[in-house]
Structure formats: structure tokens, C-alpha cells
Write a structure and sequence with these properties.
Elements: H1 9-27, E1 32-33, E2 39-40, E3 52-56, E4 65-69, H2 74-82, E5 88-95, E6 107-116, H3 120-135, E7 140-144, H4 145-153, H5 163-172, H6 186-198, E8 207-211, E9 233-238, E10 241-248, H7 253-269, H8 279-287, E11 293-299, H9 300-308
Parallel strand pairs: 1-5, 7-8
Antiparallel strand pairs: 2-4, 3-4, 5-6, 6-11, 8-9, 9-10, 10-11
Helix pairs in contact: 2-8, 4-6, 5-6, 7-8
């Protein structure tokens, strides 16, 4: 009976309470909840994020206009920060096309928040505290990207390692070879080590904060002033599953424009559809500027999966895509 919810009513009662708990966490810290638009005339240019697009009949305009369902509330939240909002959080739906598996839904619940004056360490600590609120007390492990490659993959200095060293590492761990790609594509082999060797081992009996990703993977994070090889970015893993992705936020408006343009060029190179960038955000950054802050986005449904000891997101949401 496809009309039935994918989660039990008992599970949905737990979900309701956990959503209250998440909001209470921020209200207790005087962080303001914001309700940003789901539809936008712009989309994220990130190659790895596919936006859903629809057409809107705007009064006064003959042809329907393309709009995108947001993959994250990041851009309007940063406009609010530029306008002087102070600390803010969003808890609601986002959409990412092409993701459907036991750990992914096209439509899912995201928690995103920004804290003024927080550095990377502050943000990792607060994110771990919020996760503990839902899944219970666990140790927190702080692990740099380079340390993770050394400890879990046996690669002593990943930032200077060669493609050959990465391929040898994959062979040692019996990861099947990828056919038809450039043998000297170090970034590809490094990413395979991360996803196939390291990530499954992270967050076992702990909340692992993996930080200082390579500068090339900065997205919209600041680059470290003491080590330009790394970005002030982190991800959090529990039981081998990524839960959160955060930054010490880039403030430079020209830096945003440059990174957007680089992402658009990357899309062209890989044959992906180009998308309009958020000019409103660029204007806000240029005219007012982003205050020094850190931000993080956390997958709420995944967090609830862990708390419920479930192995499929559909077990903790009312309806999955198949019976929506």
C-alpha cells in the first residue's frame, strides 16, 4: 500500500520531539531562526550539486521564468548576515537532484547555522555538542585531513604525495582499479582513498571532526593563513557516515566571484549545464561585507537515522520519493 508512510507513527513522534530539541538548542543560545526562500533565480555552481529547476509565470512577464529549488539556504543566509542579522539558523527542506539511496533523498531536511566570531574549532565543538543532544554522549575526535591519511591509509604526507603513491595505497587496501582514467590524476586517486578507505573508518564510537581539507576543496571556506595548502573547512562523521560540512567563512567579495567563475568553468569542462550565479549575494558581499563567522550544514534525516539505529532514511521520514 504505497499511500502508507515510510516511517512508523512512533518514529515520527520521535522525529517531532527531536526537531523541537534542535530548535531549543539554538533558542537557548539566542540564535535567530530564519525562513529563507526555497525558490531562487540563481543556483549553486558547484559541479557536484544538481539543482532542480522549474518555470514560474511571473506577472508582467510574457514567458515563464526559470527558478531553482535551493540545495542549501547558504546564499540568502549570507545576505542576511551582511544585512546585520547576527547569529542565525535554518531548519527545513532542501533539494538535490540525482541523489536517491538509503542515505540520500532528493528532498531532505537540512539544518544550517552561522555564528559570528566563531573560528573553525568553535564551530566543530558546537556541532559535536548538537549531535550529542540527539544521539547521546560520545567522545569527540579532532583529526586533520593529513592525519587521517597517515593513520588510516598509511600515506604520510598526502598534500605532497604523488599519484603513484595514491594508487599503491589503493592496491594495498584491495580497492579495485578504475579503468579509463588518467593514471596521473592524483586528485582522483586521493578522493578514492578518502571515500573507500578512510571515511568508512571514521566516527566509530566517536564523533570525528575531519578538518583542514586541501585548499582546492575549499568551496567557500577561508584558506589558512599559516598553511596555504589547506582550507578552514571540516566535515563530521559518525559511524562512517558524513553528517555535517562546515567552514570558517570566506569574507572577500572578489574571492566569491573568482570561485563562482571557477566552478562555472568546471561545469563547462565536464559537460554540465551552466547556471546563473547569485548576483544579489555578490552585491551584498561587495556593499556591506560578510562579518567574520563560521557556518555549518547538517543532514537532519541522517542524524535521526543514527539516533534510531536505522539504515535507511525512509525509516525516519513520513514519505520517501517513491510514494510522495
Amino acid at each position: 500500500m504505497t499511500w502508507q508512510p515510510t516511517a512508523s507513527i512512533e518514529q515520527l513522534k520521535k522525529r517531532s520531539q527531536w526537531l523541537k530539541d534542535l530548535r531549543a538548542f539554538f533558542y537557548a543560545r539566542s540564535v535567530m531562526e530564519v525562513d529563507t526562500p526555497i525558490l531562487s533565480s540563481a543556483a549553486t555552481p558547484d559541479l557536484h550539486l544538481q539543482s532542480l529547476k522549474t518555470l514560474v509565470q511571473v506577472p508582467g512577464i510574457k514567458d515563464k521564468q526559470p527558478y531553482f529549488l535551493h540545495t542549501s539556504p547558504e546564499y540568502p543566509m549570507k545576505r542576511l548576515l551582511c544585512a546585520g542579522s547576527g547569529d542565525i539558523f535554518y531548519l527545513g527542506k532542501v533539494f538535490r537532484d540525482g541523489d536517491l539511496s538509503p542515505r540520500h533523498q532528493v528532498e531532505f531536511t537540512l539544518l544550517e547555522w552561522y555564528r559570528l566570531g566563531f573560528d573553525l574549532t568553535d564551530m566543530m565543538a558546537e556541532t559535536a555538542a548538537l549531535i550529542q543532544l540527539i544521539i547521546g554522549s560520545r567522545p569527540t575526535q579532532m583529526l586533520s585531513y593529513e592525519q587521517a591519511f597517515r593513520q588510516y591509509a598509511g600515506v604520510p604526507s598526502i598534500h605532497v604525495a604523488s599519484a603513484e603513491e595514491c594508487r599503491q595505497c589503493l592496491a594495498r587496501h584491495q580497492i579495485p582499479a578504475v579503468i579509463g582514467v588518467d593514471k596521473e590524476d592524483k586528485v582522483l586517486w586521493e578522493q578514492l582513498i578518502l571515500t573507500e578507505v578512510i571515511e568508512p573508518l571514521l566516527g566509530q564510537n566517536a564523533i570525528t571532526c575531519l578538518f583542514h581539507y586541501p585548499a582546492r576543496d575549499a568551496a567557500l571556506a577561508e584558506i589558512s593563513k599559516t598553511n596555504p595548502q589547506v582550507a578552514l573547512r571540516f566535515e563530521i562523521f559518525v559511524e562512517g557516515m558524513e553528517l555535517a560540512n562546515g567552514y570558517q567563512e570566506l569574507q572577500n567579495s572578489d574571492g566569491y566571484r573568482d570561485r563562482f567563475e571557477a566552478s562555472l568553468a568546471d561545469r563547462v569542462q565536464h559537460g554540465a549545464e551552466s547556471v546563473p550565479v547569485d548576483r544579489h549575494l555578490l552585491d551584498a558581499l561587495k556593499e556591506k561585507g560578510l562579518p567574520q563567522c563560521s557556518g555549518v550544514a547538517l543532514g537532519v534525516d541522517r542524524l535521526f537515522m543514527l539516533a534510531s539505529k536505522q539504515n535507511n532514511i525512509e525509516s525516519v521520514i513520513p514519505f520517501g520519493l517513491g510514494n510522495a
